[in-house]
Amino acid sequence: MSRPIWDFAMRPDPVSSGAFAEALFAPDLPSPEGLTGREETRPQRRFSVYRNNVTVSLVDALASIFPTVQNLVGEDFFRAMARFYVAAHPPTSPLLFTYGESFPAFLESFPPAADLPFLADVARVERLWLDAYHAEDVAPFDPAALAQIPAEELANIRFRPQPATRMSRLGHAAGTICRLDRAGMPLDGVNPLREEAVLVTRPAFDVSIEILPLGGATFFERLLSGHALGDACLAAGEEAADIPALIGLALTSGAFATIDLLPESERP
Predict the structure, then answer these.
(1) Residue ranges of the chain assigned to CATH 3.90.930
(2) Cys bridge to 255: 68, 101, 106, 201, which one at CB 3.0-4.6 A?
């Protein structure tokens, strides 16, 4: 059997995993002590190549997770910014699609991006998109099931969300920006500083981003937390919401997997 390039385990004093990981994500640090390789190779040089390849792979992963963020700032700026993130936030899971959960918070405190205050919210929407994409497959309920509910009980319906459903209130028009950019459409006329709420789900194979109308955030927050339809309608109505439109969206968005009736003991 040929000798491995990185012969850590066979050495009497192997490289510690902590020192290896610290050097791997800190390009200013020298190679860790104890590296060995084949006689004809220089392990320090090979480690530098390996370190760069790991960084590039993680930067590529971030670019695939946050394509709209990259489009907004440009590829060169994004990749430089992503390198700072990788150095400060090494992965904690072998699954690359889970990487970057803290990237939105990082963007909020990254000084060169201060002129784009909406960038972090755009990253949040893209993260919701990814989470919905990888969620468990559960078919949305058939709106025809409402026909089985007596009219006097409709207010007591409880909606059960499907695993892909996410909802968020945002301080910026990040949902609109993501929808347009991912569709290859221009952002002309979009006010990025406008607040909005988004409903992200995956009714079939494609993730959808719905921009919720007035009162929609309150309405869906109630439904997603297990409140009855009547309660959600009352809460949204206090914000002058279009209740029929919101109910229609709840039925057609694919956000919910099943419906049932709120038990008598839980009714007001």
Answers:
(1) 136-268
(2) 201
